[in-house]
Amino acid sequence: MERLEFRFAGRPGTPVAETGEALVGVVGSGNLEVMIERVDLGGGCLAVVDTSIHGFGDTWQQVLADFVDRRGLANIRLSINDGGATPAVVVLRLDQAWAGLEEGER
Amino acid sequence: MIPARHSFQEAGARARIRALLDAGTFREFCGPAQRHTSPHLPTLGMPVAFDEGVVVGEGAIDGRPVLIAAQEGAFMGGAVGEVHGAKITGLIERALDTRPDAVVLLLDSGGVRLHEANAGLIAVGEIQRAVFDARAAGIPVVTVIGGRNGCYGGTSIIARSCDRIIASEEGRLSVSGPEVIEAVEGVEEFDAQDRALVWRTMGAKHRRLIGEIDALVADDMEAFRGAVSESLGKSRPLDLDELEAEHARLAERLARFEGVSDAREIWAALGVNDPDRVSEIEADEFNRLVATLEGARA
Amino acid sequence: MNADAALSAPPVSSTERLIDALFDQASISRAGPLVTGTGTLDGQAIAILATAERAQIGADLALAMARNVLDVMREAPGRPILIVVDNSGHRLGRWDELMGNNGYLAHLSTCLYLARRRGHRVIGLVNELAVSAGFMALGMATDACYAMPEAEVRVMALNAMSRVTKVPLDRLTELCATSPVLGPGVANFIRVGALRGIWSGDLSAHLREALAEMPGERDTRRELGLERGGRTLARDIAAQVRAGV
């Protein structure tokens, strides 16, 4: 297993509006689970990835940075348990996680 | 028009709970944000799951309070490890404090998780003990089987320790997996690749016909929900008379079917006219058949 | 006894020898792998339910054992039951699965549970071997289960476990040296709280002590696992869920 941690600037200084979390996906071969949580990170975002496939730090960095950027996220913690998912599956789960978080808050 | 089915089998553990409970009533215990993950899997280089592959909590069905657990079959085959098992045990024990109308266990498991085998085995023993304690307190414990893994190993023994079992046509219930029998006893004893043989021997229709499960439903959330709802508040006594009756039933089966090698012989003996068709018929027709057979017996 | 009977009688099993050593006097009979009867210790009668020769627990054997428990409940209310566990697990066979062996194993444990509730003290003692479902349906369905020093308790042999988990055998063997949750062995099952302890030396004294203990209301195996450092999370997780947190 390899643990990767990424910090993103997000929107610095943004106060925490609410709390909540969502979990999507299941850990398995070629699959992953993503937990998304609202926590006070001073407007930043944090991603912690535990993956069974070593050596793909750059790819994770890209995919996650793009997600944070695309959604304009702040004060979001992403926790990922990965069983070797492709980037396409990762992107899908990230979007599902965000949708799940928003749905839970409606 | 035939209403679209919402498959139980295709759904994950959380979706199953959402579909079975009244909307908005579910409250999860020891949820994923608490990160009570297995300490044993990382030692073996295996990924963990935030909910340890089982979702437990409370909610309502038709306004009646229930405790519910759902194994996530896609994580480690729904296998029971230390934390996974302790979540289920704690949930069932909670019934002694809150006295719900039922404890509902959505089992989808190959049995004990070998990566933490000893902790998993004692855990299934503890779950079974908790089931008995709840039953002895008059709280019904209902098992639901309809996931991809079926219900095997220690979990199959837990299932039969409950008051009632509901399964879909796709459900399987057996202590040994087909591959294990083949690996140990040889392909002549059991050909694990022969899917028809697997279903005939371990599948829910056979189990319903011989009386090992209580209700067979289509692979449809509403059908499951209806069957669970009907089970609420109905407990089977846990006393000597009941166990003697169960014993007589089990003894009769062994005596009657000694040496039988194929389920179709059993079904024919039970009065099924066309055993070869059993695998094909839909749940409704199958249940009419069971009702006819039970009527004829009574 | 005539000569033919003497020839056809199976050699005395270690289970039978163990029973002899445990009691002042024991009257047992053997039918295949099943050994049943009554033993006396300090004038107290104790029902004996045992298997020999590392029996495979098929549906028929599980049923016969359940019958024995039901009979003890009817004929000798309150009499303690000693289960001598010696099995290779459940029988792997097409017929047993057709019959629904899981239902028979569950019935056996249900009978033992009811016996405990009706005031029978139920003690388990693993003689040679206890495997997986064979340990669950018997050893774990007791008030307290112990093991002989040479006994083995396991879910699966390590080489088979290596095949299924795809963890190399030497790695598994190495991990077993430090992890009580993984590998076979009485010591590990003691540490996770599944076994109370080992009986050696004066066996009758151990039995006397186990019988004298008051049965607890709660399942305390998680607490044992925590105290012994073999299963450190189960107790608190279960308690937390029970509290609805």
UniProtKB/TrEMBL annotation, chain A:
Q: Which GO terms describe its cellular component?
A: cytoplasm
> Where are residues bearing O-(phosphoribosyl dephospho-coenzyme A)serine located in the sequence?
S29
Q: Which residues cross the membrane?
A: none
Question: Which domain of life does this protein belong to?
Answer: Bacteria
Post-translational modification note: Covalently binds the prosthetic group of malonate decarboxylase.
Give one Pfam hit by family name: ACP
Principal subcellular localisation of the protein: cytoplasm
**Keywords for this entry?**
Cytoplasm, Phosphoprotein
Alphabetized InterPro entries for the sequence: Mal_deCO2ase/Cit_lyase_ACP (IPR023439), Malonate_deCO2ase_dsu (IPR009662)
Q: From the Swiss-Prot or TrEMBL record, state where the protein is found.
A: Cytoplasm
Q: Matching HAMAP family, A to Z?
A: Malonate_deCO2ase_dsu (MF_00710)
State the name under which the record lists this protein.
Malonate decarboxylase acyl carrier protein
UniProtKB/TrEMBL annotation, chain B:
What enzyme category does the UniProt record give? lyase
> GO MF terms on file?
acetyl-CoA carboxylase activity; carboxy-lyase activity; transferase activity
**A biological process (GO) annotation for this entry?**
malonyl-CoA biosynthetic process
Among InterPro entries, the record links this protein to: AcCoA_carboxyl_beta, ClpP/crotonase-like_dom_sf, COA_CT_N, Malonate_beta
EC numbers, comma separated: 4.1.1.88
Q: Where is the CoA carboxyltransferase N-terminal domain?
A: 1-240
For whether the record's keyword set contains Repressor, the answer is no
A Pfam family it matches: Carboxyl_trans
Q: Which key words tag this protein in UniProt?
A: Lyase, Transferase
* Name listed for the protein in its UniProt record: Biotin-independent malonate decarboxylase subunit beta
Q: Which organism is it from?
A: Ancylobacter mangrovi
From TrEMBL, chain C:
Mind telling me which Gene3D superfamilies this protein's record contains? Answer: 2-enoyl-CoA Hydratase, Chain A, domain 1
Check the record and name the SUPFAM superfamilies matching this protein. ClpP/crotonase
* Name of the protein in its database record: Biotin-independent malonate decarboxylase subunit gamma
InterPro entries xrefs: ClpP/crotonase-like_dom_sf
Pfam families in alphabetical order: MdcE (PF06833)
